[in-house]
């Protein structure tokens, strides 16, 4: 199973970025997909998740600014990030739970300049 993330990069404060993640190498559909992020010296923190049933969870910092959307049939998930702040700078990791196992992507860098 592989998780391929794309869409990271650079944005100015107040700008937007969209992250995408696709799962391949499995015939299972995800139970849950989402994103976490990590900055040096800090623990990885939840950004947002979505279940196959459409239930979403957001980290407090993401509420009102970030939106997660998923396609269960295609095993893909996107994260629309708006009103970005310099403190959103981090490596963002895609995660997926399939067949009771959790998988992680390699991470994509998001840098927000002030």
Write a structural description.
By secondary structure, the chain is mainly β. It has strands at 2-6, 9-12, 17-24, 32-38, 45-51, 56-58, 66-71, 76-81, 90-98, 101-104, 108-113. The strands form 2 sheets. Strands 2, 4, 5, 6, 9, 10 and 11 form a 7-stranded mixed sheet that branches. It has a 4-stranded antiparallel sheet with strand order 1-3-8-7, with no helix packed on it. It is globular, with a radius of gyration of 13 Å. The protein starts with a strand and ends with a strand.
The low-confidence parts are none
Largest beta-sheet details: 7 strands, mixed
Distance between the termini: 37 Å
Average pLDDT across residues? 95
Overall radius of gyration: 13 Å
**Helix-strand makeup class:** mainly beta
Number of separate helices: 0
The total of beta strands comes to 11
Q: Assign an overall shape.
A: globular
DSSP helix fraction = under 10%
What order do the SSEs take from the amino end to the carboxyl end, as H and E? EEEEEEEEEEE
β-strand amount:
over 45%
Distinctive features:
single chain, 114 residues, mainly beta, seven-stranded mixed β-sheet, four-stranded antiparallel β-sheet, 11 strands, 0% helix
Summarize the structure.
The chain is mainly beta and 114 residues long. It has strands at 2-6, 9-12, 17-24, 32-38, 45-51, 56-58, 66-71, 76-81, 90-98, 101-104, 108-113. The termini are far apart.
